[in-house]
Amino acid sequence: EWQGPAKYEPAEQIKVLNSVMQQDPDFLLTAPTDVNALSQPLKQVSDGDTPIITVDTDVAATEVRLGNITSDNELGGKVAAEYIAEKIGGKGKVLLINQAPGISTLDARQKGFEQELKKHPDIEYLGVEYTQDDPNKTAAAVGAALQKDPDLKGIFAVDTLTAEGVATGIANANKADQIVAVGFDGSPSEVEAVRKGTLDALIVQRAYDMGALAVEYAVKYLEDGTEPPAQELLDYVVADSSNLDDPEVQKYLYRAE
Questions:
Q1: Is 248 exposed, middle or buried, given 0-12, 13-18 or 19+ CB atoms closer than 10 A?
Q2: Phi and psi dihedrals of 107, rounded to 5?
Q3: Which of 61, 69, 76 is nearest to 30 (CA)?
Q4: Whole-angstrom distance, CA of residue 116 vs CA of residue 166
Q5: Per residue in 230-248, pLDDT tens?
Q6: What does the pLDDT read at residue 251?
């Protein structure tokens, strides 16, 4: 059984979690919406003898879960920075768009991106804009950034909705030819943005593999007590206009259905 909040925020997810736990599940697979806010609620779950695997995101109190399956998020940020640096010739102004601080995966992507940019002294990092995973706010932030720095050369958006907002902001400003924009994930709208040129590349997670592995590990644990790895890090597929139709890329792009 799958449940989730309509909005990506801790308070809403905790309500769903409390409801789910009334059904006394044998195992819980969860993607925490906040590294700290979900630690105590998930501790209550594990203290009640329901084993947990966190998928994609994680919590600070790692002792509450058996394992975590996620992408190597620092690596994802590093790959995005490398892509932008190469495409802009190693010089120019670069901006990062994030959802909010405190989400483990997004914090790690930002960290990897910022660390890689330090290796490129001629790139001026303009810092991070937090837009609460709202595409409209993100599009407005891109417009404001271009007003302040009309020579902006690169943008990294750390998840699906920020990437969609960046694509809209670039289209609204008619700056697709000026800005190298890299998004994360591979939603249908992001893929369409790559085809249109308002996004240049996507760092696509192996999301299907995460879910499949989580179920596999949960079943093994329930059958014979085999514990999952404390953490399993998956790599990425980089999708751009040169390989979007490659079957090895296509199988990792997200489906609308």
A1: exposed
A2: -60, -40
A3: 69
A4: 21
A5: 999 999 999 999 999 999 8
A6: 86
